[in-house]
Design goal:
The protein is of the alpha+beta class and 60 residues long. It is built from 1 helix and 3 strands; from the N terminus they run βββα. 2% of the residues are buried.
């Protein structure tokens, strides 16, 4: 490991409660307990357009 790449946090959790991560590091897409296996260099949240519009109107 140690190669920078992007992962998406899943809505599912490991047996210990850690959120699972969906990612592809070259062996195909997997969902596994790798949230803390790589240095986290950014954190972003995607807002679908209806939610984004609602957030903008609530916070002008």
């Amino acid at each position: 490991m140690g190669v920078p790449h992007i992962g998406l946090v899943s809505d599912r959790r490991s047996a210990t409660g850690t959120p699972l991560v969906i990612h592809n590091i070259g062996a195909g897409t997997v969902e596994d307990n790798s949230l803390f296996a790589y240095a986290i260099t950014g954190h972003y949240r995607y807002f679908p357009e209806p939610l984004n519009a609602a957030c903008k109107s609530a916070n002008p």
